[in-house]
Specification:
Elements (H helix, E strand, L loop, with lengths): L3 H5 L26 H8 L5 H12 L7 E4 L2 E5 L5 E5 L8 E9 L4 E8 L2 E8 L4 E5 L4 E2 L5 E6 L8 E8 L2 E8 L7 E8 L2 E7 L7 E6 L6 E2 L3
Antiparallel strand pairs: 1-2, 2-3, 4-5, 5-6, 6-7, 8-9, 9-10, 10-11, 11-15, 12-13, 13-14
Length: 226
């Protein structure tokens, strides 16, 4: 699960806000959003969609030429030419919004923050192919740029799964998944190296988090056939 909601004192992704290589990079990578930046930017936001739009306003100047906002449309440039538009819907119940969240220069892909009604998630767009994969939480790119990891873990309404995806020329393929044996209230992932994940988790939200390391060769992963 993305640590965004935890940072803001909100519910995790997919819970109600109220309960809240194929090509060379053309842009400088935006500095990864820090917890302090997210908190400072989104504190006081009206809802998840508003938070996403505030983050987008922060990121667009850092990535000139990558994307632009035209009313309800977020226009993202593709490689080597063309563009694709993500259009917000104002439906009062199931309205959808898209916001620019980050850019992974090593795999020339754009991270989008997506809200549908009161639920929030992410998507990753490969600019060379135009392929889009929906993700339950924020992706974390590995140091060798061959994979990314996603932690979708929370007390309710999450998949309770740590997943590793492989980056290919044709898109993204889910490669590994692992479900914690114990119930965790929250979790996030970072990479220690290209073959090792550091998983920070809470069993009790009121307690200090713990961290475990899990190598990609660990036999407890479930390996997903191509």
């Amino acid at each position: 699960m993305s640590r965004i909601a935890t940072t803001l004192g909100l519910s995790p992704a997919r819970r109600a806000w109220g309960a809240l290589f194929c090509c060379l990079p053309l842009f400088a990578q935006a500095a990864p959003l820090t917890r302090a930046e997210i908190e400072a930017t989104c504190t006081g936001a009206e809802d998840a969609a508003h938070c996403g739009r505030l983050i987008e306003a922060l990121q667009l100047p850092r990535l000139p030429g990558l994307a632009r906002r035209n009313g309800n449309g977020l226009i993202v440039s593709l490689f080597p030419s063309g563009s694709t538009t993500f259009t917000d819907s104002d439906d009062p119940v199931n309205g959808r919004s898209y916001s620019l969240w980050d850019y992974f220069d090593g795999i020339n892909s754009v991270v989008l923050y997506v809200t549908v009604g009161d639920d929030a998630s992410f998507a990753l767009l490969q600019r060379a192919t135009g392929r889009l994969v929906d993700l339950p939480a924020e992706p974390r790119l590995s140091p060798d740029r061959q994979r990314f990891a996603v932690a979708d873990v929370c007390a309710q309404h999450c998949g309770n799964e740590i997943a590793v995806w492989r980056v290919t020329r044709d898109g993204f393929r889910k490669e590994l998944r692992w479900t914690p044996a114990a119930a965790w209230a929250d979790a996030g992932v970072t990479w220690r190296d290209a073959d090792t994940l550091a998983i920070e988790f809470n069993v009790d939200p009121a307690s200090a988090p713990s961290t475990i390391a899990r190598k990609l060769t660990d036999p407890t992963w479930t390996r997903i056939a191509p």
